[in-house]
């Protein structure tokens, strides 16, 4: 350990706040930006250790609090293939973050080195990025101190979307190998996506312009960079691009606003014409919600479930047309929050699996299919092509021109889709491709199925850990007896469904309810909430 003499001095400069307990949860560490200084320093050390453990492969660190308020911030680690940090290391992250003093921290580091059998002589490489939050620069400075303390080689990706940081990690680690994923630069990302998009819509009638609500976050930068590359193939009209206006981030706009309130962001009210498509990103541009205003001037939301239905249907049809139906099985992964109508629609067409909330569960379940489509209702998701499927696509000999065209589309989709993580920009282009191929407006897309009215409410309880679930979070096993009471209530509502689970990112319990009519869904949600409270 003698090579790391800087650790004590640097650790003393980033003391842990004694009254706070940190937890590396489904979204990494996430809380008020003002209490994260010590956490960022320690995450720098952990990222260095993770890289050493993986023989110097580059690890990613993203500083963001996504759709949460501007004063929040957070940090998560990205593993070499661009995926979330391996679950067994989440505990190491929490241990380091909670070490009370500098000497406790050093002991904790030594324990991890022993436990995970880390060879400290290996190199360490870390690429990091941040969103547009005002607390970002100071937190990145703390992170850099952590990287310096563990002597990791840093690469600054600057202000980037979360999916771009994942892309960079994957391209850096596959550079010059047969698994190469693209050029390891932000420009490489825009070129890869826009190139694939243009090939996929070549010869199609360009769609009318798309309004993009950037949530006053980093997605605004990304849209301004990719727009020129898309040229005439797609016209984007960005809104909510005020990335430096204090308090604007995610405020009365963005994907979470749209999903939670099922309303048009007020800033778009005079801009979205009847029938026109619009979409919203969240603060780090990994979630996407679509919407339009119908003929009766009603706001219509097209959420992650609608995206899954649209995309899965398109992929299945391409596989059939390409003559690959018996070789490549397409499946869909959802969580309990998926609208019941979407589950019914999808399950009539292909295999559907339900897993607990959290991207890692969805991602892992989707990897089990040849092509796995996963979307959370809140708009986070992507499509995964297994290695075997990518090889099948690369080597398949089409026997008709129609087969050849479908095969090419599938190959281009593997380029367009960010397979490491949900990506608002990549998903937006994917949706636009399907709409262009299907000649759909928002209305036709919306008509695939009719959403069941639903309501999501938060309940503040004394101890949310008292709520334990099974069956992909659809059933409560504790507190004892509560599930029976919920079941009794649900039975009284036509088309009723409801479940209760503790949030993994907030200190609340969430209650979800669906019913055949809106007032009943609301009533069911509030009555179940009454049982929980
Ligand atoms: P929690 O707080 O565990 O419900 C929320 C979202 C998840 C996921 C995570 C990570 C809902 C109901 N829950 O999780 O889907 O996106 O945040 O950001 O939307
Ligand atoms: Zn996000």
Tag the structure with descriptive keywords.
Alpha-D-Glucose-1,6-Bisphosphate, Chain A, domain 3, five-stranded mixed beta sheet, 4 domains, globular, alpha/beta, binds 2-acetamido-2-deoxy-1-O-phosphono-alpha-D-galactopyranose, 533 residues, binds zinc ion, 18% strand
List the helices and strands and how they pair.
Layout: H1 6-12, E1 29-32, H2 37-53, E2 58-63, E3 72-78, H3 90-98, H4 102-115, E4 125-130, H5 136-149, E5 153-159, H6 162-174, H7 186-201, E6 210-213, H8 219-230, E7 236-239, H9 255-261, E8 278-281, E9 288-293, E10 299-302, H10 304-321, E11 330-334, H11 340-347, E12 352-354, H12 359-366, E13 371-375, E14 381-385, H13 387-395, H14 401-416, H15 424-438, H16 442-446, E15 454-459, E16 468-470, E17 475-478, H17 482-490, E18 497-502, E19 509-514, H18 518-532
Parallel strand pairs: 2-4, 4-5, 6-7, 6-8, 11-12, 11-13
Antiparallel strand pairs: 1-3, 2-3, 8-9, 9-10, 13-14, 15-19, 16-17, 18-19
The structure holds 2-acetamido-2-deoxy-1-O-phosphono-alpha-D-galactopyranose and zinc ion.
């Amino acid at each position: 350990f003698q090579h790391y003499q800087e650790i004590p001095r640097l650790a003393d400069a980033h003391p842990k706040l004694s009254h706070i307990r940190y937890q590396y949860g489904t979204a990494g560490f996430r809380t008020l930006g003002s209490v994260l200084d010590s956490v960022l320093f320690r995450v720098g050390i952990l990222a260095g250790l993770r890289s050493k453990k993986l023989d110097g492969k580059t690890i990613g660190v993203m500083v963001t609090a996504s759709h949460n308020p501007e004063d929040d911030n957070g940090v998560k680690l990205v593993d070499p293939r661009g995926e979330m940090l391996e679950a067994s290391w989440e505990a190491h992250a929490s241990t380091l973050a909670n070490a009370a003093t500098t000497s406790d921290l050093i002991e904790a580091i030594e324990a991890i080195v022993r436990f995970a059998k880390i060879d400290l002589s290996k190199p360490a490489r870390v690429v990091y990025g941040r969103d547009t939050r005002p607390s970002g620069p100071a937190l990145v400075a703390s992170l850099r101190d952590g990287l310096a303390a563990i002597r990791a080689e840093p690469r600054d990706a600057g202000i980037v979307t979360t999916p771009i940081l994942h892309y960079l990690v994957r391209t850096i680690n596959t550079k010059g190998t047969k698994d190469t994923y693209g050029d390891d630069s932000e420009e490489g990302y825009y070129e890869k996506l826009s190139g694939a998009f243009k090939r996929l819509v070549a010869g199609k009638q360009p769609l009318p312009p798309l309004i993009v609500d950037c949530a006053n976050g980093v997605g605004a930068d990304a849209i301004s960079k990719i727009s020129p590359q898309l040229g005439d193939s797609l016209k984007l009209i960005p809104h909510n691009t005020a990335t430096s206006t204090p308090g604007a981030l995610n405020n009365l706009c963005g994907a979470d606003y749209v999903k939670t309130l099922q309303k048009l962001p007020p800033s778009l009210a005079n801009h979205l014409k009847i029938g026109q498509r619009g979409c919203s990103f969240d603060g780090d541009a990994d979630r996407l919600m679509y919407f339009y205003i119908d003929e009766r001037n009603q706001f219509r939301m097209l959420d992650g479930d609608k995206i899954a239905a649209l995309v899965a249907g398109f992929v299945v049809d391409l596989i059939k047309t390409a003559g690959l139906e018996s070789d490549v099985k397409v499946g869909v992964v959802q969580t309990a929050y998926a609208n019941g109508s979407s589950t019914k629609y999808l399950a009539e067409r292909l295999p559907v699996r339900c897993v607990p909330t959290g991207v890692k569960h969805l991602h892992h379940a989707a990897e089990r299919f040849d092509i796995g489509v996963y979307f959370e209702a809140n708009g986070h998701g992507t499509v995964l092509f297994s290695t075997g499927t990518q090889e099948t696509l690369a080597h398949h000999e089409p026997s008709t021109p129609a087969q050849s065209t479908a095969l090419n589309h599938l190959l281009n989709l593997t380029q367009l889709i960010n397979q490491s993580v949900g990506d608002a920009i990549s998903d937006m282009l994917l949706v636009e491709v399907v709409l262009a191929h299907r000649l759909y407006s928002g209305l036709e897309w919306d008509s695939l199925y009719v959403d069941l009215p639903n309501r999501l409410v938060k309940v503040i309880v004394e101890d949310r850990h008292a709520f334990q679930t099974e069956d992909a979070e659809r059933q409560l096993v504790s507190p004892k007896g509560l599930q029976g009471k919920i079941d009794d209530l649900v039975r009284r509502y036509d088309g009723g469904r409801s479940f209760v689970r503790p949030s993994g990112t907030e200190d609340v319990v969430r209650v979800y309810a669906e019913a055949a009519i809106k007032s009943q869904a609301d009533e069911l949600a509030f009555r179940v909430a009454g049982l929980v409270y």
